[in-house]
Design goal:
Elements (H helix, E strand, L loop, with lengths): L7 H13 L10 E6 L2 E6 L13 H20 L2 E7 L8 E10 L4 H8 L18 H12 L4 E4 L3 H19 L2 H11 L17 E2 L16 E2 L6 E7 L4 H20 L3 E4 L2 H4 L1 H7 L8 E9 L16 E3 L3
Parallel strand pairs: 1-11, 6-7
Antiparallel strand pairs: 1-2, 2-4, 3-4, 5-8, 8-10, 9-10
Length: 323
């Protein structure tokens, strides 16, 4: 399908739909879009922040960055050029990005593959197999992050994995003992599958039998137990700085990694606890080969595809503005 085959309004609607398929912590979907002639603004929706788990909005800005990546990828896939300006106005801190249309564009085969993976990508909360990921796919994941000015640090030594496991258990215990955190978690997870946001009961995963070295977040509705993989690929996504701009950039890099994994037939899950607790997030920096700031931790492997969680419709998150 070429740029001349589809009206611009339909192109924008499809691109915004792709943007809403981005991942977000607890599926809070903390974004709003403003459409003006030849551009789309991406704003942080402060009404959807998590004051306990994400008090400074870092993870929310990353979510918006992932939405920016999807928006640009969807435009490129149908032959529309797009350039992204991050955090363009210091006087408007919740304006995180402006995506401007630049006319005809010839997407690469890799860009087309990533765009086609947007609808298939979902967060896995179930066990992976113990099948090893080929070095070529590991390299592709690292390059995807580098392409968005971030670093994907693969934890390949037993000492590094043991350190991460210790920090993860410490953070998990901190959050489990925090009644405010548990109330916030329940608000976004303890319900059926009829809402357009949050993580419904049927999207949760089982608990590991006998524990696991790296345990995913335990959602309240989890009850069953399964044997989890013992040797998943674990990676820390890091950025050089830790400003709002870097948070958005980290989200774009994260989505590039997630879509690259999807194209390769890989599943991904988040190990969120150690980056949400300030003390353990600081300690994670010891696992980085150079100075930087951990933004998220991923487990990557082969597993069964997970059903995507629901999203709010484009009309609920979009405002049109005439200029």
């Amino acid at each position: 399908m070429s740029i001349t085959d589809v009206p611009l309004s339909a192109v924008i609607t499809r691109a915004l739909y792709a943007a809403t398929r981005a991942p977000s912590v607890h599926n809070t979907q903390p974004w709003r879009f403003t459409v003006a002639p030849a551009l789309v603004e991406v704003h942080l929706d402060r009404e959807r922040l998590l004051p306990v788990a994400d008090p400074d909005g870092r993870e929310a800005r990353m979510s918006c960055g992932a939405a920016v990546f999807n928006l640009r990828a969807a435009l490129h896939a149908v032959g529309w050029g797009a350039v992204v300006e991050l955090v363009p106005d210091r006087e408007r801190p919740d304006l995180l990005a402006v995506v401007r249309f630049t006319g005809r564009y010839s997407p690469t085969s890799e860009q087309l593959a990533l765009a086609s993976a947007i609808d298939r990508r979902s967060t896995s909360r179930r066990p992976f197999t113990d099948q090893s990921i080929p070095p070529s796919d590991q390299l592709a994941l690292s390059r995807a992050a580098e392409g968005e000015q971030a670093h994907l640090v693969l934890l390949e030594t037993p000492d590094a994995l043991d350190t991460l496991a210790t920090l993860s258990r410490r953070a998990d215990h901190t959050q489990e003992e925090d009644p405010e955190f548990q109330r916030e978690l329940l608000k976004w997870t303890e319900y059926g599958d009829d809402r357009e946001d949050g993580v419904p009961r049927n999207a949760g995963g089982p608990r590991p039998i006998g524990g696991a070295q790296l345990a995913l977040r335990r959602f309240p509705a989890d009850a069953s137990e399964r044997t989890f993989e013992q040797d998943a690929l674990v990676a820390i996504l890091a950025t050089h700085g830790d400003s709002p701009l870097e948070h958005v950039r980290a989200g774009m890099a994260l989505q590039a990694v997630l879509l690259t994994a999807t194209v390769a037939g890989l599943s991904t899950s988040f190990l969120s606890q150690p980056v949400e607790v300030p003390q353990t997030r600081t300690a994670l920096r010891s696992l980085l080969p150079e100075p930087g700031h951990p933004q998220t931790v991923l487990c990557i492997g082969y597993g069964h595809p997970a059903a995507p969680t629901r999203r709010r419709p484009v009309t609920a998150v979009t405002t049109n503005r005439e200029e």
